[in-house]
Design brief:
This protein is mainly β. It folds into two domains: about 5-225, Protocatechuate 3,4-Dioxygenase, subunit A, CATH 2.60.130.10; about 235-330, Sandwich (Immunoglobulin-like). It contains four helices and 15 strands. The protein has helices at about 5-10, 165-175, 235-240, 300, and strands spanning about 75-80, 95, 120, 130-135, 145-155, 155-160, 205-210, 215-225, 240-245, 255-260, 265-275, 280-290, 290-300, 310-315, 320-330. The chain has a four-stranded mixed β-sheet with strand order 4-1-8-7, with no helix packed on it. Strand 5 (about 145-155) and strand 6 (about 155-160) form a beta hairpin. The protein is elongated. It starts with a helix and ends with a strand. Mean pLDDT is about 85; it is low at about 10-35 and about 230-235.
Amino acid sequence: MKRNEFLKSIGLAGAATLFSFDKARVKEIEQRAPPPNNCVLIPSETAGPFPLDLTANPFYFRQDVRESKTGVQLNLKLKIIGLSNCLPMQNARVNIWHCDKDGLYSGYGDQQGLTYLRGYQMTNANGEVEFVTIFPGWYTGRICHIHFQVYLSSSYAAISQLTFPIATKNAIYAANPSLYTKGTDPLIFSNDNIFSDGYTYQLATLTPNTQTGGYDSYLEVTVQGSGVSGVGHIEKENAKQFTLVQNFPNPFEKETTIPFRLAQTAEVRIEIWDLNGKRVATLLDEKRGAGEHQVKVDLDTLGLPNANYAYQIEVRNSDGVFRDCKLMTIAG
């Protein structure tokens, strides 16, 4: 299967860790964002004039969204939580997009055809996604912000924005005048048309990262739904044909098992993909009868390094071709 077929079948796409956050975790400077949001629904915000449909192009399945854009490195981690039980939601797609250091968005005006600072991933067993990007600039009328969308199914997606502590954010601009030539952000939250009615649950942390010389940022995001371990968001059409179950154990170290159920006899292919959209192994490619099935995964036997991977099932039967994908999370 080709990369674009894999990504289209996910509907959306993968997640986990291409980079590591600073283990030492120095104290946040000047201001701290609020503690975890205690399972309060994230406010819905406009997608803005520059959302684009990230899923229309499988190229956007990536963690490092910088391309050639310069700026202070920002390691952004979002944790997605289900409102109904306050548990992490796994296998949810998260899109991000934001402006560059000069306040420009890819895909619009003289930036048409460009793709920088946009990407999507899929939440891991802890409900987390991570991106490598640059600290965004600002533009007239808006305080510094990042757009994000949490896509759970074809019938529900939460769209919102996040922002940062003002003093810490402006300290970054002031310390890097050759990059952020517009200077510090002049707006405060009450002047911004998005955050003037509240920002408590959209204020991400900003912590210096001594390894990269940049910053780490973290935000917990609560959306509608349940964060039940082992249960993803399965489209109804697929559910009529098959069910792809979360691998167990998950997280795991070297070995895990992928269960699936078939409603009728079908040709079944199960593949493993890395988080850059490259197929790295085929676990199964044969006809299976209706009922319960399992496939073992041994990273050593497959010759794969310890990393997070997406696994995809493709089911072919008399009704058509159906696909689903989930993420396996490596322990530690």
